[in-house]
Amino acid sequence: MEITDSIQVLMNNTEQNVQLDIFRENGQVLMQVYKQKDVTKWELGVELVDKNGFVIEITFHPNKSKNKENIKRFLESELYKKFNKYDSIEQNSYFIGIPSNWNIKNIEDIILKILSDIFNMKIKNIHFTLNAY
Questions:
Q1: Can you tell me the distance from the alpha carbon of 102 to that of 55, in angstroms, rounded to the nearest whole number?
Q2: Most buried by CB count within 10 Å: which residue of 14, 53, 101, 113?
Q3: Mean pLDDT, rounded, for 89-111
Q4: pTM assigned to the model
């Protein structure tokens, strides 16, 4: 399954608590995509665009590969200005809301931009799964 197919399944899935995990070959999660209506249940104060949209979370954990370089690229990027960090979340996580009127290509483009600009990776070097939590 391609990333485009995974995004489409996430968009069309009516189940609650389904997420798209994007990770390195070694299993380290780079980012996760959630439905905004599921994120509202977490009561973390995450600012949402609209309840039918999505949320992308990127997390910088000190034990992850190339973490210092990744966070440095993130803090210096244009993307940084679009993400929000919430103090209520103990992890070093950043969130961006994606409106429901974005199509699959728009969502794929921002995922690819995050991979290339922040994690210095290409789509061929990542793995992804759809999971329910």
A1: 12
A2: 53
A3: 89
A4: 0.90
